[in-house]
Design a protein that fits this description.
CATH architecture of chain A: Orthogonal Bundle
Low-confidence stretches of chain A: none
Oligomer: heterotrimer
Mean pLDDT of chain A: 87
Strand order of the largest sheet of chain B: 6-7-8-3-9-10
CATH topology of chain A: MetI-like fold
Distance between the termini of chain B: 37 Å
Mean pLDDT of chain B: 90
Low-confidence stretches of chain B: none
Helix content of chain A: over 70%
Number of helices of chain A: 15
Largest sheet of chain A: none
CATH topology of the largest domain in chain B: Rossmann fold
Order of helices and strands of chain A: HHHHHHHHHHHHHHH
Radius of gyration of chain A: 24 Å
Largest sheet of chain B: 6 strands, mixed
Chains: A mainly alpha (about 280), B alpha+beta (about 375), C mainly alpha (about 300)
Structural class of chain A: mainly alpha
Number of domains of chain B: 2
CATH superfamily of the largest domain in chain B: P-loop containing nucleotide triphosphate hydrolases
Chain lengths: ~280, ~375, ~300
């Protein structure tokens, strides 16, 4: 509570260690279970570590899920499309809301802010109907085309950032002879790289995590994302193979963890700034 | 190179909540001759920057017109006006090298690469961006403030525009850099022989750099004249007080008839004080005859108040408050019966004179009289 | 409009055109359509049949709706304060000069990144009655209490016990407060140290400093976070859906409004009714948001505004 005090109360230290362990425990348990043979998973009292790590559980789990790599490819494809679409369309729209002065701009922005309050379940049914009319149910389109139409949250984020770039850069560029699009592409975007990276990261996480979207809009099994594939595994067999389920869960989690550790600083900074606004 | 004509120019910001309508530029009219260095000067909010930005095309013209080389440019976007601008905060593209910053405008216009190279190198050499260090490949953040400003200058120069626009380019530099860059810009003007429009709030910059100066205040033009004309023949109280440092002394008083049949200026003082008197020459008295027995403001510059000199008929005695020895000259701050004033002299030091009295001999041939109500100078 | 203004307007509209299309297709049209559908009998396969307010009447008399509503609100009302206390507490703990602060922060943050599917399956395993880790940790404490007080407390079969299923879900949610911890930590680090120093000189103790300096300075962040949490919590769908294998949980205790909407829309193809339910959810969200904002405006302290 008082960060300038040089000696930290031992109570705090103990509390932190305790809580840290508690928070890590589920991860540990997940990996531990994934490496046990099935009988060891159900032992009571629980056995903390596998007697010998069953690495083959992982390929077994992938096998049990069915076309694992196909699901992975689907997830990656969607993530990629969403990231590209989101980054560019949000930046494009955010430019219009921040670097240009035009009548009605702030009113439109207010509307944009308001739409952030609309919960997905409310618009779910009509959007389903819309996609159905377009013949897009059972294709990937509903899961990536909207990304190219600029989501409110990312526009908001990028607009904040764009506003911090000095106006006279745009003015100098206008005098130099840039068209507005050129200013966007050659001046603003290169200067916004950190913010764009943050948007890309958040979008990747969101798409990778998306469950309801694929659940509603995909039909055929060969289109499933990893999330759906994993859920299918959960439902299939009776006498749940916890070791396989844990292995599969770990696999789905892995790319997210790797990405996080590679981009930690950007990530944490991004979250902190969105929270502080 | 080109003439720039500003004709009945207005900039009006419409009223919105919390703020009434604002007239930032009120009927500006002037013409800048080809190759002239014209400075727009005035306190902040006077409309000088707004006027410049209207010339640049960065601000919409509310009413009136601007002509460059005889062509009306109201509706023409900035990039087609053939002008270049140097910004207060340099506005260099942070992610581009110095070379690219300067070349960018030319690239956009499809100028061939060899030509770009030639122009950038030439400008860089002129501006000292090649010696002692070649700065062309550096990014702006690796440069000092003075270097950045020179890159901004270079970016304008390579465009070979009809007119150069400067928006307070020296404000962000330290004092020494300011003087250096100021002379640099003046040198450039002679070398390039181009039309330049320069905005500043600093009257020293205006006086040292300009061919002519436009003095503005609250959106209105106060006076347009060459520096020395502005200095010696200010059109009104504001210009007189704004131009020149230390500023002109102003004494309020009345013109009464003197024994010699000429007019005499009698200082206005509060009860119990003794006013000073200055007899005017017969020529001046004739000029001001209609003002007899009326209040006027006497303006006289610090260097025209000579200390310790007795002039016949003048009893300007003042008490010394502060003495500022500057080395080459001394500023003496004094108090008369009803006013404070500054005297500037190169005569012997005036140490230890605080509190003592001094006789001031005003050179009335250099004095300017103002009407207290209209604040206008009473014409010669 | 002057020519310049018109030019700028066109440029502006061109730049925001992607959003305009998205807005029309995914915000405006669905909102209006939702209202229309809620007044109809509509299964996607055939045209909607106008029913007037019949769906709403049915809704009013539908015990399942009330159950779902109750679950959703109870969850929000319980989980959000708990989560807020926990995350602020963690942030305060982290905001001390300890070695490994970054590591602890990562440990607390990581769970919030876990994809819903992994999260749900993991906690389905963790909350397993006989074999789950949670009970294995809890049982020793219960045994001690039983021995001391002679009671017969049992570790609950979380996901199969209608009284405890929601608590299991709340526990799952608490594991994921890491994102809020990062935000609060950043907020804490913005509080100028001089404030604490001055208070210390004034003779306050740590708890008083927390109450009178930390909390007020943090209040805008808390306000925003709580508002976002409310909007999020009321829409809970994925984790309970997966936890229950697509169902409602024991005695419908894990049936959330969003789940019920989904069921009506895509299991029963009763889209009209689903739309009516969805609009109720919308009204609920707006209502609670307005209450929060109203309450927040009074209590939140904005420094330097």
């Amino acid at each position: 509570m008082n960060p300038t005090r040089s000696s930290v109360p031992w109570l705090s230290r103990v509390a932190l260690i305790l809580l840290g362990v508690l928070f890590l425990l589920p991860f540990f348990w997940m990996v531990s279970t994934s490496l046990k043979p099935l009988n060891e998973t159900m032992k009571l009292p629980p056995q903390w570590l596998p007697s010998s790590p069953q690495w083959h559980n992982y390929p077994d789990a992938m096998q049990a899920m069915g076309p694992f790599w196909l699901y992975a490819r689907n997830s990656l494809l969607l993530a990629f499309l969403n990231v590209v679409g989101t980054v560019f369309s949000s930046a494009f729209v955010a430019y219009g809301f921040s670097r240009l002065d035009w009548r009605g701009r702030d009113g439109c922005f207010f509307v944009l802010l308001a739409t952030m309050m609309i919960p997905f379940p409310v618009v779910m049914v009509p959007i389903y109907g819309l996609f159905r009319a377009l013949g897009w149910i059972g294709t990937f389109q509903p899961l990536w085309v909207p990304a190219f139409l600029a989501g409110a949250f990312n526009v908001f984020l990028l607009r904040q950032f764009f506003l911090s770039i000095p106006r006279d850069l745009s003015e100098a560029a206008r005098i130099d002879g840039c068209s507005e699009f050129r200013i966007f592409w050659q001046i603003i975007l290169p200067l916004a790289k950190p913010a764009l990276l943050t948007v890309a990261l958040f979008q990747f996480m969101a798409t990778w995590n998306d469950f309801l979207g694929p659940l509603i809009f995909l039909a055929r099994e060969n289109q499933y994302t990893l999330a759906l594939g994993l859920q299918a595994l959960q439902g299939t067999i009776s006498g749940t193979p916890w070791h396989h389920l844990m292995a599969a869960s770990t696999l789905v989690l892995l790319p997210v963890l790797v990405l996080f550790f590679l981009t930690q600083r950007t990530f944490i900074r991004g979250i902190a700034t969105t929270g502080l606004k | 190179m080109a003439k720039v004509l500003i004709e009945n120019l207005y900039k009006i910001y419409p009223a919105e909540k919390g703020r009434p309508e604002k007239m930032a530029v009120d009927n500006a009219n002037f013409e800048i001759q080809d190759r002239e260095f014209m400075v727009l000067v005035g306190p902040s909010g006077c409309g000088k920057t707004t006027t410049l930005r209207m010339v640049a095309g960065l601000e919409e013209i509310s009413r009136g017109a601007i002509y460059i080389d005889g062509k009306k440019i109201n509706e023409i976007p900035p990039k087609d006006r053939d002008i270049a601008m140097v910004f207060q905060n340099y506005a260099l593209y942070p992610h581009m090298s110095v070379y690219r910053n300067m070349a960018f405008g030319l690239e956009l216009r499809g100028v061939p690469k060899e030509e770009i190279r030639r122009r950038v190198d030439s400008a860089a050499r002129t501006l000292g961006l090649l010696e002692p260090d070649n700065l062309l490949e550096r990014k702006p953040k690796a440069l000092s403030g003075g270097q950045r400003q020179r890159v901004a200058l270079g970016r304008a120069i390579v465009r070979e525009p009809k007119a150069f626009l400067f928006d307070e380019p020296l404000s962000n530099l330290d004092a020494k850099m300011r003087v250096e860059t100021r002379t640099e810009i003046s040198r450039l003007h002679r070398q390039l022989a181009s039309t330049m429009i320069y905005v500043t709030h600093d009257q020293t910059e205006a006086m040292t750099m300009a061919d002519r100066i436009v003095v503005m205040r609250y959106g209105k033009i106060q006076q347009i004249a060459a520096p020395l004309d502005l200095y010696h023949q200010p059109a009104n109280l504001f210009v007189a007080g704004f131009i020149g440092s230390p500023p002109m002394n102003f004494f309020t008083g009345t013109l009464t008839a003197s024994r010699q049949g000429t007019l005499e200026f009698v200082e206005k003082v509060s009860a119990g004080q003794t006013p000073f008197r200055c007899p005017l020459s017969s020529e001046t008295s004739r000029r001001l005859s209609s003002r007899q027995n009326r209040e006027v403001i006497l303006g006289i510059r610090p260097e025209h108040l000579h200390p310790n000199s007795l002039t016949s008929g003048v009893n300007l005695e003042a008490t010394v408050e502060v003495v500022e020895p500057m080395g080459a000259e001394t500023f003496v701050y004094l108090r008369t019966g009803g006013h404070t004033c500054i005297c500037r002299t190169t005569q012997i030091e005036f140490m230890d004179l605080e509190g003592k009295n001094l006789n001031l001999g005003p050179d009335l041939s250099r004095a300017v009289f103002f009407d207290p109500e209209t604040e206008a100078a009473i014409p010669a | 409009m002057t020519l310049g203004e018109r030019r700028n307007l066109i440029k502006g509209l061109v730049f925001i055109s992607p959003w305009i299309v998205g807005f029309l297709a995914f915000n405006l049209y669905p909102l209006i359509a939702s209202i229309w559908f809620s007044l109809c009998d509509y299964s996607v396969l055939s045209q909607p049949v106008f029913l007037g307010a019949q769906n709403y009447v049915d809704l009013w008399h539908d015990p399942v709706f009330w159950k779902a509503l109750r679950n959703t609100v109870v969850f929000a009302v319980v989980a959000i304060p708990l989560s807020t206390f926990l995350s602020i507490g963690l942030a305060v703990l982290l905001n001390q000069p300890i070695t490994g602060q970054g590591i602890y922060r990562t440990i607390f943050f990581l769970p919030s990144l876990v994809p819903a599917i992994s999260l749900a399956i993991l906690w389905q395993w963790m909350l397993n009655g006989p074999m789950g880790l949670v009970n294995n940790l809890v049982r020793p404490f219960l045994n001690i209490i039983n021995a001391v007080t002679g009671s017969h407390l049992q570790a609950p079969d979380w996901l199969n016990d209608p009284n405890f299923a929601l608590w299991g879900l709340i526990l799952t949610g608490l594991w994921g407060t890491g994102q809020a911890v990062v935000i609060y930590l950043a907020g804490l680090q913005e509080v100028p140290a001089e404030l604490y120093e001055a208070a210390e000189l004034d003779g306050t103790n740590a708890w008083q400093r927390f109450l009178h300096i930390t909390l007020p300075m943090l209040s805008p962040v808390i306000f925003f976070n709580v508002l976002m949490s409310i909007i999020g919590a009321l829409q809970t769908f994925a984790v309970p859906y997966i936890l229950t294998g697509g169902g409602d949980g024991p005695g419908r205790s894990l049936l959330f409004l969003a789940t019920y909407i989904y069921q009506n829309a895509f299991d029963y193809w009763n889209m009209g009714y689903a739309s009516a339910l969805a609009l109720c959810l919308f009204v609920l969200i707006i209502g609670l948001s307005l209450v929060t904002v109203h309450y927040g405006e009074k209590k939140v302290h904005y420094s330097g505004r």
